[in-house]
Amino acid sequence: MHYSYLPLLASLASSSLAAETVLGVYIFSRHGDRTAKMTPPANLTTLGLEEVYTSGTYYRNRYVASDASHRIHGINSDLIKQSQITASAPTDTVLQNSAQGFLQGLYPPVGETLGSSTLRNGTVVQSPLDGIQFIPLQTVTTGTNSENSAWLQGATNCANAQISSNNYFQSASYLETLNRTHSFYTSVAPMINRTFTSAQTSFKNAYTIFDLLNVASIHNTSANFPHADLLTDETFFQLRTLADQHEWGLAYNESEPIRAVTGAIIASEVVKALNGTITRQGKNKLNIQFGAYAGMMSYFGLANLTLASPDFYGVPDYASTLVWELVTNATVGSSSSEFPSADEISVRFLFHNGTTSNISEPIEYPLFGTDNSLMPWSDFVSSMNKISISSQKDWCTACGNSTGVCSPESLGESGSSVNSSSSSSGSNNSGGGGISKAVAGVIGAMVTLAVILGAELLILLVGGYRLVSKKRLAGTSPESSVGSGANAGGPKA
Ligand SMILES: *[C@@H]1O[C@H](CO)[C@@H](O)[C@H](O)[C@H]1NC(C)=O
Ligand SMILES: *[C@@H]1O[C@H](CO)[C@@H](O)[C@H](O)[C@H]1NC(C)=O
Ligand SMILES: *[C@@H]1O[C@H](CO)[C@@H](O)[C@H](O)[C@H]1NC(C)=O
Ligand SMILES: *[C@@H]1O[C@H](CO)[C@@H](O)[C@H](O)[C@H]1NC(C)=O
Ligand SMILES: *[C@@H]1O[C@H](CO)[C@@H](O)[C@H](O)[C@H]1NC(C)=O
Ligand SMILES: *[C@@H]1O[C@H](CO)[C@@H](O)[C@H](O)[C@H]1NC(C)=O
Ligand SMILES: *[C@@H]1O[C@H](CO)[C@@H](O)[C@H](O)[C@H]1NC(C)=O
Ligand SMILES: *[C@@H]1O[C@H](CO)[C@@H](O)[C@H](O)[C@H]1NC(C)=O
Ligand SMILES: *[C@@H]1O[C@H](CO)[C@@H](O)[C@H](O)[C@H]1NC(C)=O
Ligand SMILES: *[C@@H]1O[C@H](CO)[C@@H](O)[C@H](O)[C@H]1NC(C)=O
Ligand SMILES: *[C@@H]1O[C@H](CO)[C@@H](O)[C@H](O)[C@H]1NC(C)=O
Ligand SMILES: *[C@@H]1O[C@H](CO)[C@@H](O)[C@H](O)[C@H]1NC(C)=O
């Protein structure tokens, strides 16, 4: 009796599944394979470029191509429509180049036919490189130069997050591991003593030691990798898990949420972007952001993903991606008046550890300790808002910073309106530090510079500040990052 219903149920399930429509997507990706942090400047390698390009191609086949498996409603498949896509990365060579590689996979060259145009006088002009296309890259302030910074908080510029991460070095768990692993690190010293002194060869530098050996195990010839035979699978695994433990301790602590400031900013960026897709009826559809593993780990902690899988305690591999899909079962028409309302929309979270491809696809995970990887939009927003830091002012308060972009003048709290001169990209924060997002590429950089210079001028005029004190603010150079890392467990300590 019962059996006769099965085919019917199955066909119902598959037809309603087929009815699900993806309205928008946010992808947060780590860079591809790079050179080691201890041999700066870090560069994206050829292997790394191939990894992000492969991921980009996978996401093209999932969301963009005309025969995509989860095609985003109304997205252009071949020729880019700039208003549909937002791509961003911090000012960091490895991350920016990774983003460019990913985007070429997402929207590859269109070839001779689409990539040509006919002029008024009849001449047909061919676009170079087989019809290559570009997507402007916005720059986000958080994470500037992160791949050259040895310390996890080196690129956040958030005072309280740095203090909180430093607390980790006083924790019983850290001190116990430091003591327990002393002889283990001594045993790997012959492989790394050209880079780390014996005083630096300890759990204190667990990540940078792992990073150096991981890079060497992929790239170095035997001639440039002394005592490589010491790096057995078991030793490598030990180095990796110790690095995981170390970085997790710096990235997240339940009783001190500010430690996870980067994850809090990511949460806010995701909600803002997806909300924009809903409120503007799907005008903007696809967001791609590149960033460091530190922000991913912070987000894993804040969003309780460790309850979904203990793997989330580990550092995600190169080219890992976090994906938030905006989905609906409502009928979606082509006109904007037929766009579903917020209560018909849900969010699905997916993650893939390492390069994504059609033989290794992202997996759904439930956020916030729930048991469903699909969350109604309103629940998603309220949970994300609990962990988000979404304005420059909130950032300054949470970080305990009160100078520079956090001075009352910059925050527009003392009569002047420096803030309002911001970019036209829809961002409502001023540039400089904290959480702002500026306009695209080279032009973007110049606009940002102009905004900052303008702001500095105003502050000089209005606040009567001295130029000397302002200059320090821009302090996101590798030197200053590693400098603070040195006090705090960076390689120099
Ligand atoms: C990265 O590239 C620069 C040149 O662009 C080079 O000087 C530097 O040595 C490279 N870094 C590594 C670790 O290979
Ligand atoms: C057509 O216009 C283009 C661009 O102004 C020019 O380079 C080309 O020589 C013109 N061709 C003819 C046939 O006039
Ligand atoms: C916040 O304060 C820390 C510590 O004083 C400093 O290193 C950082 O540059 C400040 N950040 C900004 C954006 O001013
Ligand atoms: C580790 O702790 C034990 C006991 O507290 C102490 O005797 C030992 O010297 C410590 N080892 C190191 C390497 O600090
Ligand atoms: C590194 O350790 C090896 C083996 O102990 C030793 O032969 C070598 O001289 C050391 N190199 C440096 C730069 O200290
Ligand atoms: C790997 O090679 C680089 C130079 O390309 C060198 O700086 C680094 O020390 C080597 N790593 C190891 C573990 O020997
Ligand atoms: C969180 O931080 C507090 C204070 O720094 C520390 O006592 C505690 O052990 C930390 N918790 C974990 C899980 O590391
Ligand atoms: C979404 O955007 C609208 C319009 O900008 C705004 O009023 C609303 O507060 C936003 N909602 C969330 C959850 O951010
Ligand atoms: C990713 O994979 C590595 C092993 O390659 C593992 O150590 C780590 O825990 C994984 N991270 C996540 C977030 O799944
Ligand atoms: C759409 O319906 C299917 C079948 O009932 C269900 O599995 C899926 O979760 C629904 N999707 C959304 C976004 O509600
Ligand atoms: C996976 O991708 C490769 C290369 O793009 C393609 O040849 C192959 O057909 C794809 N396989 C599936 C199952 O989509
Ligand atoms: C994460 O889980 C803990 C314990 O299970 C709970 O107290 C906390 O509220 C959860 N946090 C979020 C953001 O859901």
UniProtKB/TrEMBL annotation:
Annotated InterPro entries: His_Pase_clade-2, His_PPase_superfam, Histidine_acid_phosphatase
Residues covered by region (Disordered): 410-432
Transmembrane feature ranges: 438-462
Low complexity biased stretches: 410-428
Signal peptide: 1-18
Keywords: Membrane, Signal, Transmembrane, Transmembrane helix
Single annotated GO MF: phosphatase activity
Pfam families found in the cross-reference section: His_Phos_2
Family to which the UniProt record says this protein belongs: Belongs to the histidine acid phosphatase family.
Name assigned to this protein: Acid phosphatase
Source species taxonomy: Eukaryota, Fungi, Dikarya, Ascomycota, Pezizomycotina
